[in-house]
Each structure stands twice: as C-alpha cells, then as structure tokens.
Amino acid sequence: MRHYATVLRRRGRWIMLGAIVGLIAGIASTFLATKAAPTATYFKATNTLAEGTAPGSSTPQSGSGNTGYSLNQAVLLIQSQALLMKVAGATHLSTNQVASQLTASVRQNVNAIDVTAIGTDATTTVKLADTAAETLRSMAQDQAGNSAEMQREQLQAQLDARTQQRQQLLTQAAQNPPNRADLETQINQATSDITNLTQQIQALPAGSGFVLSVLQPATPTQINAHGYNYRYQQNVNARNQLVNPSTNSSAAPDFDETDLSTAAGISKSLRVLLGTVAGLVLGLISAFGIEAWDDRVRRRDQVESLTKLGILTEIPRLSREQTRDHHVAVVDEPVGIPAERYRSARTAINFAFGDLTDVDPGTTPVLMVTSPGPAEGKTTAVSNLAAAFADDGRRVLVIDGDFRRPAVRRYLGPVPNLIAPEEPAETRIEGVWFLPGPRDVPTPEFAAEELIRTTGTWRNEFDLVILDTPPILTTNDAVELLPSASAVLLVLRAGQTRTKAAARVAELLENYRAHVVGVLFNGCDRTELSEYYGSSFGYGYGYLGQSAKKTASTDAEASASTPDLGDEPSEPEAGSPSNGGQSVPAHQS
To answer: pLDDT tens across 254-284, in order?
Structure first.
C-alpha cells in the first residue's frame, strides 16, 4: 500500500490532468445536452364503426342474421389490396406504409369495429384512421349488399322450383291415380315449403341489410415508443403471415402504451461530477500504466535485486536551491537527515576498509566513487563523504578524476593552482584537501596514467583518498582507474538511473573483480524515507561538527577568491537556473 501511495504521489500530475479533462468533458456535455434534438412523438387514433339497422327493417342486424354477412368478414377487408390502394391514394402514403400503420378489430360486445392507425404526426394519424374507416364501411356495405342479393336470388329460385313441382303434383292428383294418397302428401309438403320460402323472401330487407355507421370519429392519443413499435411490428407480421387481424394484429399491448414518463434526465451538476470521476479513473489508469512501463530505479528493493549489492544508505533529494548553491549537507546542515545518512555511509565504508587492511596493510585506502551515467550525484556524494570522514578526525584528499567535466571544486571551495598544481590545496571544509585532475591532456589514456601517478604520490600523505570519476558506462576513464582504487562506491539516483544501466554497471564491476563496498542510493523521495526516521525531518542531536565551525564569511571569501584558470565550466543540471553572467552552477554530477 505504501508503494501504491508513492505511485499516486509521484504521478499526481497525470491524475490531476485526467480529472481536469473529465471535468471539461462533463461541462461540455451539459451544453451538448441542452442543444440535443427533442425525441420523436408517437400517436394512435381509433375510428369506431357500429353496425346499424337496415332500411325498411324493424329489427337491428346482428351481423349474423338474414344477410349472412358478419363483422368478422368486414374487418378482413382492412388487409385487402383494394382498400390499401384506396386509402394510400387518399392519404398520399404508400400501400406499405398504410398496411404497417393500420389495423382493425371487432368489438363483439357492442357489434362494432375499431379501425386504429398509428403514426408520428397527430393530424396524419387521424386522417389515416378516418379515411380507412370510411373506405372499410363503404366496401363492407357493398360486399354485404352483393351477398344479400345473391341470397334473395337463391331463395327465389328455390321458390320457383318448388311452386312448379307442386303444380305438377296437382295435375297428377286430378287424374285420380292409385297413388293419390302419396301425391296428396307430397302436395302438402310442397305447399309448406312454398310458404316458408315466401316468408324468408318477405323477411329479407329491401337493401343489403348490413349498415355500418360512425360511432366515434378518430381522435389522436399520444403513445410511447415501445407501444408504437409493438403495434407496428404486429401489423407487419399480420400482413406477412396473412393472419386474421381481428385475432392477431389488433392484439392490445400487455403494457401501458400511454405512459409517457421517462427516466429523469441527468442534471448538469451530475454530468460534471460523472465527468470528473471518469477523468479521475482515467488518470489513475494512466498513472499506474506509466509506472508499469517506467524502467527507472525508484525503490530500494529494485536496486538490491538488479545489482546484487547492498545499499549503504539512501540520501534524500536536494532542493533546487541546494543544488544551485553546491550544498554540502554535512557542513551546511550538519543536523539534517542527509548529513546523518552520509555519516551512516561513512560507518559502513569504515567496516569495508577494515576488511582491506589485511590485503594491503600500511597503505592509505583509495575510495573510487562512480555511477552508471551523468548527473547521478557522484560529486555531491564525494563532497559529503569527505566532510563526514573529516568530521571523524581524518585527513582526506579529494582528487577530481573527471577531467572532462570537473565539478567537485565548486563544492569544496579550494584555492589551488589548477594549471600546474604542486601540492593539494586546502578547502573550505576543515580536514579536506583537493587535487584537480590533469588538464589539456592529449589523450584520455594519458589522463588516466597521470591520475594513477598522482594518486600513488599523495595517498600515503593522508588518511583517505576519495577519487571522483566520470560515469563508468559513458567513458572508459573509470575502468582505467580501477587498479588504483582500494574500493568502489556505486552511486545511483532514484528516478533517473535506468534498470538496465544499474544491472550493467554491477555486472561490469564484478567482471573487473572490483571491491564494491555498496550502493549509495541518491535523490530518494523524502516521504519514502519517513518510515526509517519518523515523520520529523528536523530531528538533530544538538551538536555541530568541527567542520561546521568555520564562519559564513570565511566560506564566502574562499569561494570569491577561487581563480578560474582554464577550468572547463560544467553544464548546469537540467531544471537548475543559471546564475546570470556569473559562474555557471555545476550539475549534481
């Protein structure tokens, strides 16, 4: 969980960027929502046709009476091609549109027909229902009239045939034949049939006997989209399957199609909140995704796994002001956390040097400080370690082995002859002396030989020699200096050193059989170090080391009087401000 919290803190800019993008998207959605086109409206309209009384008849027709024509027969006309074409012509719609938007059903309890139309325009829907109902009424009555006329003709033909048969029977009976009794029986039956047929003919109405009248004209009723789609699909299925519309296509929906309530719209504040949350989630995903792809060393366990070396100490990251002012924590802030960390590194190195005394007794140890690449904190480490050992009462000589980009003198503030130094120069740190590397050398190999010779000349005059070298993976200079070093301190910077570089430099030092005392992990996040030193970074021991006894004025005089005789100015660290026309600040090498 601490690691996750560190990732969130380290990638906080991505998370904030995602939240800002989501917030902007949420605000933009509120404007887009107000400009959205209104949703479509849907309507249904029903025209009700009631069966009436035939002219000249005293009894209402039921649809299954004398004419034999029923409401079920009439309602089938709604799917006939003739009706569809007539209605399409009157409403200026296609026959397919009429068929899919029109249906009819029988209401048996009141002997009526409901002609229902659906559509997206109220006026058009009402016109479609009324036109279809009028066309259905006219066609049904015409069809019923034709049926009644046919029935009348059929009854009259039966009556004429039966009358002729009776007349023949009467003629035969007048001759008094032997079967007269049988003939009289047949004559009576014929007479009875003629009477019944005559009564049926007389009972037929003068017209068709089937009359439909408008009981209720169409009025629009708004329905929801679900209801419209349901009715539309029912009509299409009825036409395609040629089923009885009175039993299928007119089936009412089993839900409330007039319910126009909709889900509450998303408010503007909720849109903004949802957009911000979505952007925050996107920012979190981006942060952890970038962290997964980041191949820079950031944690202690990563360093130990990659290098197979122990970490002597972890040094907090310096501020820009400290980097610009060439801050030496052991001297300038002796009771701070960085100073204590360098002192703990001093203790670990002392133990390592104790192991070397048996190998090379009576010889001053030489500690070579290097790193995989530039700007990883070698020079800062050299300056602070020199001050830490000097605080322990040792005479320390610092040799600048980085003749390409010398920078350590800016931290120590020496006053040497940089072109032809005859002996080590005192620095602003009591107990620390400084020797510059060779200048204006023809080849790097010559420079390495000079450094080895200089180290051998002066090492026994001091208690400890610290050699500041170039990056070991950038140039071959550090490798050339390995024979003159008793031990090597590897400096890595959190958030800058790549994992492949860390593994490669450890492998290289192992191949050269160098005695590596450990790793100084530089530039660590202070919040990640709190678990070791508690939450208070201002904790101290209430004393000042002897190297801090020099006054600020003395330091200023030493720095101001330092000549710059041919020294190549080092490039400033990325992100560090320049010093306006004065000496260019060295990067934290």
So the answer is: 778 888 776 556 777 888 888 889 888 988 8
Q: How far apart are CA 91 and CA 89, in angstroms?
A: 6
Does the domain formed by 42-241 have CATH 3.30.1890?
yes
Helix axes 180-203, 122-174, angle to 10 degrees: 160
Tokens 């979190």 map to which residue?
A: 284
- The C-alpha atoms of residue 318 and residue 573 are separated, in whole angstroms, by 12
Q: What is the pLDDT of residue 574?
A: 34
Can you identify the CATH homologous superfamily of domain 303-553? P-loop containing nucleotide triphosphate hydrolases (3.40.50.300)
- Where does residue 537 rank: exposed (0-12), middle (13-18), buried (19+ CB within 10 A)? middle
E-strand stretches of 317-458: 366-370, 396-400, 425-426, 432-435
What digits encode the pLDDT tens for the residues 216-261?
Answer: 899 999 988 888 888 888 888 876 655 444 444 456 777 788 887 7
pLDDT of residue 60: 43
For residues 209 and 67, give the distance between their C-alpha atoms in angstroms, rounded to a whole number: 6
Tokens of 61: 């027709």
Listed by start position, the domains of the chain span 2-38+263-293, 42-241, 303-553
